[in-house]
Inverse folding.
């Protein structure tokens, strides 16, 4: 039975005056301890030493030139995950999310071999993960725990990684990764009044205990300006929450961007390949959202001019003057990663259920399209969903379907 490992990590070893040893950062890896040579104030340098240590530890050994398939007992899962991370995962729609899942797998399976993958160990992994707080939580003690569906998604990556390894280095036998039962997918959507409340909260308002709306200070409103943009783009276009933070104001070969002149959002860069399961077709921007986008663009151009002026007055290099290039930004800096933490605060202030996540914007857009009886193939191209998904998950919202049912049953 594999024992969950904490994995390599930094530890600040206290000074030992009796041995004339100063405080120093060390790398702890199980019972092993490796010095970094970095003092308490050299956290960044210690982090680099940790990264180098992990890279050296988990880099697969070069092929030995064996002629036949490899026995699973001779293959470390750490090597399997490393090969998958460098190959297939790097080309995934959301490589950062894949790396996070692989990191969780590595903590548990890193010292195990492929032969250790069995029904019992997969069940042990799920039991281990559902006790862990979500990674982005500020306070692990009060944070939500990882769900069994989250663990299922991680095990799906493990299965894919083993398959990827098997294609390159055939195994004598390929173990089956046993997954927990898949839950019924929730396709919840906001009502229009709930969406209005969410937008109010993103603009700095909150509902107090008496249900009355109060407004927060200016700094709080500015901190949420990017979330307001996120909500409006999500509701109007149904764009996936992982794509919206990547939107740029100008054409890009490797990133999603907005064409204000033609009123089109390109959900992927000119040279990016689309993914079979996460399609990212361009979308013609609805007029109401286009008006918002044009106003935001004007605001960002004005803010960029102010930043440039301040930069030049301070004697900065004109070629290095800062400018706002992203639709989603915070303090002129592009949003790095997801916005879940800030979004959760907006949901609380709106008085909505904490079940509401950024992905609800996509569900809401699809639901509203069906409620307006949009043609399936048009709604499919607009949202980037398949016709099958729209029909199965949202089709019951179509008025024509309800009218047919009423007539059929007289």
């Amino acid at each position: 039975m594999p024992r969950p490992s904490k994995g390599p990590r930094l530890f600040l070893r206290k000074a030992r005056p009796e041995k004339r040893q100063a405080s120093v950062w060390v790398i702890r890896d199980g019972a092993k301890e490796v010095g970094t040579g970095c003092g308490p104030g050299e956290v960044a340098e210690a982090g680099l030493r940790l990264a180098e240590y992990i890279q050296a530890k988990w880099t697969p050994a070069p092929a030995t030139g064996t002629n036949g398939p490899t026995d699973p007992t001779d293959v470390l899962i750490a090597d399997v995950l490393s090969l998958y991370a460098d190959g297939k995962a790097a080309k995934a729609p959301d490589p950062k999310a894949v790396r996070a899942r692989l990191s969780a797998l590595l903590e548990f399976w890193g010292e195990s071999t492929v032969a250790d993958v069995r029904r019992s160990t997969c069940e042990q992994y799920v039991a281990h993960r559902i006790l862990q707080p979500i990674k982005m939580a500020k306070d692990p003690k009060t944070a939500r725990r990882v769900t069994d569906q989250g663990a299922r998604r991680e095990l799906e990556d493990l299965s894919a990684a083993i398959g990827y390894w098997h294609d390159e280095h055939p195994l004598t036998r390929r173990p089956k990764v046993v997954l927990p039962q898949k839950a019924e997918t929730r396709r919840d959507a906001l009502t229009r009044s709930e969406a209005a409340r969410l937008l109010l909260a993103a603009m700095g308002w909150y509902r107090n205990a008496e249900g009355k709306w109060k407004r927060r200070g200016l700094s709080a409103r500015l901190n949420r300006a990017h979330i307001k943009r996120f909500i409006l783009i999500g509701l109007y276009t149904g764009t996936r929450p992982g794509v919206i933070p990547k939107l740029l104001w100008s054409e890009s070969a490797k990133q999603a961007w907005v064409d204000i002149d033609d009123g089109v959002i390109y959900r992927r860069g000119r040279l990016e390949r689309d993914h079979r399961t996460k399609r990212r077709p361009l979308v013609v921007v609805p007029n109401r959202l286009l008006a918002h986008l044009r106003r935001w663009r004007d605001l960002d151009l004005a803010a960029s001019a102010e930043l440039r002026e301040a930069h030049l007055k301070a004697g900065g290099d004109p070629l290095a003057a800062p400018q706002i290039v992203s639709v989603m930004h915070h303090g002129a800096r592009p949003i790095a990663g997801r916005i879940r933490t800030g979004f959760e605060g907006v949901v609380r202030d709106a008085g909505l259920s904490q079940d509401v996540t950024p992905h609800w914007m996509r569900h809401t857009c699809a639901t509203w399209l069906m409620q307006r009886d949009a043609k399936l193939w048009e709604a499919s191209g607009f949202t980037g969903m398949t016709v099958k998904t729209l029909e199965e998950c949202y089709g019951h919202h179509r008025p024509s379907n309800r009218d047919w049912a009423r007539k059929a049953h007289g």
User: Anything to note?
Assistant: The chain has three domains: 1-59, 69-183, 192-405.
